Description:
The chain has helices spanning 26-30, 32-45, 76-84, 141-153, 187-200, 226-234; strands at residues 2-4, 10-13, 15-21, 53-63, 66-75, 94-101, 107-112, 122-123, 134-135, 138-139, 161-162, 166-171, 174-182, 206-212. The chain is of the alpha+beta class. The strands form four sheets. Strands 2, 6, 11, 12 and 13 form a five-stranded mixed sheet that branches. α2 (32-45) crosses α3. The termini are far apart. The mean pLDDT is 96.
Amino acid sequence: MSFDLPRNVILPVDAVDVRLDPxxxxxxxxxxxxxxxxxxxxxxxxxxxxxxxxxxLSQLAYxxxxxxxxxxxxxxxxxxxxxxxxxxxxxxxxxxHAMLVAGDNALVAIRMGPHTVNAGSVYxxxxxxxxxxxxxxxxxxxFNMIREVREETGLDLSGAERGKRxxxxxxxxxxxIFRRYHATAPADEIARRxxxxxxxxxxxxxxxxxxxxxxxxxxxxxxxxxxxxxxWHFAGKDSLF
Length: 241
């Protein structure tokens, strides 16, 4: 198992070659008892949690502007224990962000709902990769981005103009793969649409939209990985479509 990529720097990514290994992740195999015990504590504290399926990496490398890796399907309960024991675990987490850019160049993020494991956190609408996000064993990053944005905000980005490439930021807490998605509507209108969608949901995942208008416009609850992404966007980096 190996993780070989630069940390704490935004990397251009022309392709993502991360494949789903059908075998169990060694972390899940080696920690089965602790996973079950921790899950009982987690659901006692938050009964709304659901033990669905996500993926954890066992390998990830950056080669010639490509991300190459291997991941394994695990229960969410496994992921929650890993978050507490990530150091020297032989596992890492990657996730994707559709960076929603409004017609006025503001960014539109979301604040997570109070019943979620990341309650109150602000980041772009997103979720962990799941087996449904893979095609013939290969991850489809844009499918994941579009699916998660639709589920959380009601917005359909399938026809939106996209940035010409992905970018990635890898830190000790995980690797985020992101791409600009350009909307024509101004940020206030997009936020209104998201709020209207949230109001129709019986159990919404998010509390609501958060507009970010400039690099210093950092909302309370902003996830640590978001600040470099916001600064990158408003610096006009890689701004051509």
